[in-house]
Amino acid sequence: MVVTTQREDATWYECEDCGLLFDERTDAETHEHRCDATEPTSTQ
Length: 44
Ligand SMILES: [Zn+2]
Known about the structure:
Elements: E1 2-7, E2 10-15, E3 21-22, H1 25-33
Antiparallel strand pairs: 1-2, 2-3
Zinc ion binds near residues 18, 20, 35 and 37.
């Protein structure tokens, strides 16, 4: 899940699974889909 975080007057998008921060929501969402921290699914 991607969550928004306010830091130093800027909005960051954080991957809740591994804690990585992104300055673009799309980057965070793209990462989330391939994040190693997410639980494995039946489709790998
Ligand atoms: Zn992640």
